[in-house]
Hints:
It is a single chain. The protein has 220 residues and is an alpha+beta fold. The chain is 24% helix and 30% strand. The strands form four sheets. It has a six-stranded antiparallel sheet, with no helix packed on it. The protein has a five-stranded mixed sheet with strand order 9-8-10-11-14, with no helix packed on it. A hairpin with a 5-residue loop joins strand 1 (44-45) and strand 2. Helix 1 runs antiparallel to helix 4 (73-91) and helix 2 (28-41) runs parallel beside helix 4. The relative contact order is 0.14.
Amino acid sequence: MGLQSFENGFERIVSGVFSRGSRGRVTPIELGRRLLREIDDHRSVDNRGRRIVPNAFTFLLCGADLAAFFDFEDNLRDELCETAREYARAEGFEFVGPVTVSLSIDDDLRPGRFVVTSRMKEGPGGAARGALVLPSGERLQLTQHVVTVGRMPDCTVPVNDVNVSRRHCEIRPSGSGYVVVDLGSTNGTKLNGVRIDSDQYLSGGDIVSVGNTHLRFEAL
């Protein structure tokens, strides 16, 4: 999905929530558009062939422009973070840590002008954060702990499916990301429809399948 589509999507998201402000002021949609350009301008490829992009963004605005966002500043930051995640998922980009957005004052800027800086910032312990999206739509946040998937009730993700083994597979932190590991299950574990026979690194948007259950990995 292209940049223009995400600009339109961001505009639909904020139009019912945020005021566009008065003429000559910075608007939320301008911040959203600049955020996506910042991602595009600073993408790179790591030694595993992943297309990685910045995940920590700082917007500098004059005091009057920042004050105009006071009533919904937290919501604005959340929407900007989610827009960055959606764009990265659509373009196949990955983050090395959680997405963060901060808004700060720069007294040297005039109303209507702003600056954005970005960097790649690893999560705690040098590992990326991620999430598994369950069939219910619930997101299971991944940390430094191993996530087990299987029929046993004490699995992190219990699956009620006779095609799934008692302890079927694990999602493990590895370096700056995560791997999926089959635990010798009877029917195997699939990654994007292909049965795995060794540890496989997960990229944003990957689908891990056990039996008839599909889990989507999100790199946050």
